[in-house]
Amino acid sequence: MADAAGQSQGARLEGTPDPDMIIPASGGVDVAADTFGDSGPLVFLQHGGGQTRHAWKGAGQDLAAAGYRAVSLDARGHGDSSWAPDGDYSTEALVADLVAVVAHFGEEPILVGASMGGGTSLTAVGEGNVVAKALVLVDTAPRIEVGGVRKIRDFMSQAPDGFATLEEVADAIANYQPHRDRPRKLDGLAKNVRLWPDGRYRWHWDPAFMKRRRDMAERIPRQEAAADNLTLPTLLVRGGLSDVLSEEGAQAFLTQVPHATYANVGDAAHMVAGDRNDVFVSSVLDFLSTVAPPQADGANSST
To answer: CATH number, domain at 136?
Structure first.
């Protein structure tokens, strides 16, 4: 596979799930998506940097079973979405992709975003680019911890020359997530890496994504300004073990957006849905049952 500029993205490994949909986004980028359910209120699930749409599989299935139509998206440069031809992974580009996806479906969605995906959703709604029924921010808010962000970047930046084996990939993930059990089988890693022509396994994301400019001095006031404009129903979910969103950062957001609801998932880290999908989905469904119940859109069935 190669991007529009001809740079190799590596080969998808056998067993990598194919996306259910490919949606034209912005700037020549196509966004890959999986769908769960065929009717009910529309929910977009947006992952964090370095993740894929597969991070939401359990949540998508549970939302569909509860009467929602969930769509999990690969961000540009991640998973099965195309790499940005011009290397643009700015907030503006991510927001433009979301605007295009919303237009593709032609209805107001519920936005659920973790980390980077939450920042995209907050910016898109708060700056008036997207109209949504409700917003769920997962372990992100305008004020996040520099140390936690650095830890993510260090993980994503490791092994620029790739890994020799899937065992090495599994070791890297286990070291980053010591609170999770190391997977006994390696076939589940197929969706996380690509096999490049040099025989090395590399992460699924575009290396240019790591050149994305991240300036906290700019990020905080921009997201706080966006938060000032929030009038839609909003839920903030924090992982109780998170080193990215502190309790202080969460409370600062709740003070700024007093109508927001809060859920703290005590034994989950930054990847809340992956650590405790059951508690995460329960919190989201409790919130949505009052602000966007599925009965308003009819019955649903899961896929």
So the answer is: 3.40.50.1820
